[in-house]
Design goal:
The protein is of the alpha/beta class. 44% of the residues lie in helices and 15% in strands.
């Protein structure tokens, strides 16, 4: 390679800029030149993009050493798939700069939801040499009539941020698109390179990506030191009775100096609603920061979002309060400091956020952890331990997503049509569908062609027509409808928010707005807005001076704790008895809380499960602390309630958080040494889950998303979108029809499968019960509420009380408990 023309040109360009290539970049170039595929694993800020992009340039220069600068219209050479629109602009900018400085004539194009019609029309005639595209837009490209000729020159496909895509239906979309690109040119298919941050199953992640190629790949790791500093923000006094959400905002004064001392700070908040509150709180605490601080989350209108991203680039902003919308590899050079408010719920997510700071090679990533209640300090200690031991979560790939496959078949039927036998062989090469049975494939195609057993009378479900040995969709109405709904992200119905006088503010979930009355005041994009009325899927508002505003709740904000972080947490409690000698200040600060917990009840070791039974004015409480995250606890609470009610007919109400759960009853709960191990047994778990939760109702909910992705439900044309309620109703109707007339329907099977694996984390629940069987179960009967169970108790009161009343009630409870 070192003697090749391409390498010399690139090396000279880098030298002129005062740079030299990292060994992992050179290794990637070498691998690309020898026709290999693989996965690049490097920390943010070390030129991952260049490792693949410059490889494509070297390859092109080597192929055309005489005229590589002047050659134009070479057709698509490099397809760059990225999960986020915000990334596309950044990457495009870096590539165009390099191409211009090298004096080459390559064009860089972007194709996503923001691309103009004129630009798309140009791209349909002639694609640029580099096309940066989202998974959804790539499928739209496959839905255009002449796509095989547009991509016939393709040499290399890069899949950026692959760790974000694997394990999601968008990842499955990428797998299917790659299988098509490979099949178009089986003798010399394009090389495929993933770019990924560190996850626990990198090898598997690469296998999923390269599955269609059917050949071995290579993981190229950048073994580079990335210094990481995790600093906790400590409250002045540790509350012995902690409760969620309350401490955070009160610590706002402690982050103002951090913001002032750093050039730029990103403040990550877990939910969109809380970003609005934090933005307000920072401005109230430091009014002089007005204009130098901004807010950024997925529901803010795109113009404002782009302004924030550009202002960050230029270093105009002092701080940005944001949610996961800024999580990915957007390269904001000036960011010096990151503050994470509340639990990031997983090690990988925490590392990724930390990596937003100190983007230059060799710079230290600095992340401050701000607890929203005192027990979260243990989480900070657990995160630091996990980083020291480099324990990072895996992202498990999805299998047999029939809804995505249905959508894909329709995509191909709109453009060039498909031959079912040939397509079956092609799809079987992907990781997701390698276990697809021929009978299921036939059922799926027949369902698309004739509506299956249940829907054959309805024209809208007779989509495919057999013409000239291939299936096609010829109806223009169906084709247009399908193009509008390509994608796998189904959110709650979003309504636009506008001023009555004109002017767009952002979007909000219908679920939240439907609970408000005209005259109510809510916050969005840092403004207090009064609801005037809702008209044609638009919420009309005016500015409000009211100091009390309702913060929107977003359904998406309840991520569960990862299994990995749960395990690290249990290990931290192992050392709680020696906490005053701990090397971590977080544990030392919590000594008073641990002492009180030990005095009233017990602090569980890593090989123990603590169960507390307490009687209060509200009734009889059973608290259990497995530290396995909200979803597992929700399922376990239901199973435990069902198992207890078989011993003794009792009814329960439940509450849970990431650390444990509560069953509450009006009569004593019969759990003791004689039956406790049986109650936590993994035996007959699946049947007990089916009997204990309304799994049919949960599957019905999941089915709504599956039916939208699979194209069974139409969400309406722009301007006439169906209400989410109508969607749920039509999905519900289809669900009932299938259950009655076509119970073996693939989509119904998928709905139940998703309930168990995704919603209930059934494998993790089973692992937990097997762990408990090997553990020691400690039954305690405290006289009063303990520091561990207090936050769960508070969570169960949230539903009934307004936030002011809740705060008063908790203060009274704390005073009584301290006596």
């Amino acid at each position: 390679m070192h003697n090749s023309e391409g390498y010399k040109v690139i090396r000279q360009w880098l030298t002129e800029k005062g740079f030299s290539a990292f060994p992992f970049q050179e290794e990637t170039w070498q691998h690309i030149l020898s026709g290999g595929s693989g996965l690049v694993n490097a920390p943010t800020g070390y030129g991952k993009t260049y490792s693949v992009f410059l490889g494509a340039l070297i390859r092109f220069i080597n192929a055309h050493p005489e005229d590589f600068r002047s050659r134009r219209k070479n057709g698509l050479q490099l397809l760059w798939i990225t999960p986020l629109r915000a990334l596309a602009k950044d990457i495009g900018r870096a590539m165009e700069e390099a191409i211009a400085e090298l004096g080459m004539s390559w064009q860089v194009g972007i194709r996503n939801g923001d691309t103009s019609q004129a630009e798309r029309a140009r791209q349909r005639q002639q694609l640029p040499e580099v096309l940066i595209i989202t998974p959804e837009s790539l499928h739209l490209l496959l839905a255009s009539k002449n796509y095989p000729t547009l991509v016939k020159e393709l040499q290399l496909v890069a899949v950026d941020e692959w760790h974000e895509l694997i394990g999601s239906k968008r990842g499955v979309q990428v797998e299917l698109a790659l299988s098509r690109l490979v099949a178009l040119n089986p003798s010399s298919p394009p090389a495929i390179f993933g770019i990924s941050a560190t996850i626990g199953n990198l090898e598997e992640a690469m296998d999923v990506l390269l599955s269609s190629l059917g050949k071995e790949g290579r993981i190229i790791r950048a073994t580079l030191p990335k210094k990481m500093e995790v600093l906790s923000i400590f409250p002045d006094e540790i509350e012995k009775y902690p409760w969620a959400g309350h401490l955070g905002i009160r610590l706002v004064d402690k982050i103002i100096p951090i913001i002032r001392e750093s050039r730029t700070t990103l403040v990550f908040i877990n939910t969109r609603g809380m970003t609005e509150r934090w933005y307000q709180a920072i401005l109230d605490a430091a009014p002089d920061l007005a204009g130098a601080i901004a807010i950024h989350h997925g529901s803010i209108e795109p113009g404002l979002r782009l302004w924030v991203e550009d202002a960050l680039h230029e270093g105009i902003l002092k701080a940005v309060v944001c949610t996961a919308s800024l999580d990915l590899g957007v390269d904001f050079r000036p960011v010096e400091t990151v503050i994470q408010v509340g639990s990031p719920k997983g090690v990988a997510r925490f590392l990724q956020r930390a990596g937003r700071s100190g983007h230059q090679p060799g710079a230290t990533s600095r992340i401050w952890f701000l607890p929203t209640h005192s027990l979260e300090l243990v989480e900070s200690a657990a995160l630091q331990q996990a980083i020291d031991d480099s324990l990072i979560e895996s992202r498990e790939p999805l299998l047999l997503c029939y809804d995505v496959l249905m959508q894909y078949c329709c995509t191909l039927a709109i453009s060039e049509g498909f031959d079912p036998q040939q397509l079956f062989a092609e799809i079987k090469k992907t990781y997701c569908f390698r276990y697809l049975e021929e009978d299921d494939w036939r059922q799926l195609v027949s369902f698309l062609a004739h509506g299956g057993k249940a829907l054959q009378q309805y024209d809208d479900y007779n989509k495919l027509e057999w013409i000239g040995g291939r299936y096609h969709i010829t109806s223009r109405r169906l084709a247009m409808r399908h193009r509008m709904h390509i994608g796998t992200i189904v959110s709650d119905s979003m309504l636009k928010v506008r001023y009555i006088s004109g002017g767009y503010i952002g979007v909000i979930e219908e679920y939240f707005i439907s609970r408000l009355e005209p005259g109510d005041v809510f916050t969005l994009a840092g403004k207090n807005l009064e609801l005037v009325m809702i008209k044609d899927m638009t919420v009309l508002v005016r500015n409000s001076k009211s100091s009390k505003a309702i913060v929107p709740s977003w359904n998406g904000g309840r991520m569960p704790l990862s299994a990995n972080l749960g395990r690290m947490l249990r290990q931290q409690f192992d050392d709680a008895s020696q906490a005053s000698y701990s090397k971590r200040r977080e544990m030392r600060e919590l000594v008073p809380l641990f002492d009180l917990q030990e005095q009233l009840s017990h602090v569980p070791r890593a090989n123990e499960l603590l169960v507390e039974q307490i009687e209060t004015r509200d009734g009889f409480h059973l608290f259990v602390f497995p530290f396995e995250g909200r979803l597992v606890h929700e399922a376990m609470a239901a199973v435990l309630a069902y198992r207890i009610s078989r011993l003794h007919p009792i009814s329960f109400s439940f509450a849970m958080n990431d650390y444990g759960f509560e069953l509450l009853s009006d009569q004593p709960i019969p759990v003791d040494d004689s039956n406790v191990y049986a109650l936590f047994s993994p035996d007959d778990l699946l049947n007990d889950i089916l009997r204990s939760v309304n799994s049919t109702e949960m599957a019905r909910r999941k089915f709504r998303d599956i039916a939208v992705i699979g194209g069974l439900i139409f969400q309406g044309l722009p301007g006439e979108q169906k209400k989410a309620r109508h969607l749920q109703a039509s999905a519900s109707l289809l669900f009932n029809v299938f259950q009655e007339y076509d119970p073996d329907n693939l989509l119904i099977r998928q709905a139940f499968q998703e309930v168990f694996s995704i919603q209930m984390e059934e494998t993790r629940l089973r692992d937990m019960l097997e762990r408990i069987q090997q553990s020691k179960i400690i039954l305690q009967f405290p006289e009063r509420l303990t520091p561990f169970c207090f936050p769960i108790k508070v969570d169960s009161m949230r539903e009934q009380l307004t936030s002011e009343k809740l705060e008063d009630r908790i203060k009274k409870m704390q005073v009584q408990l301290q006596k």
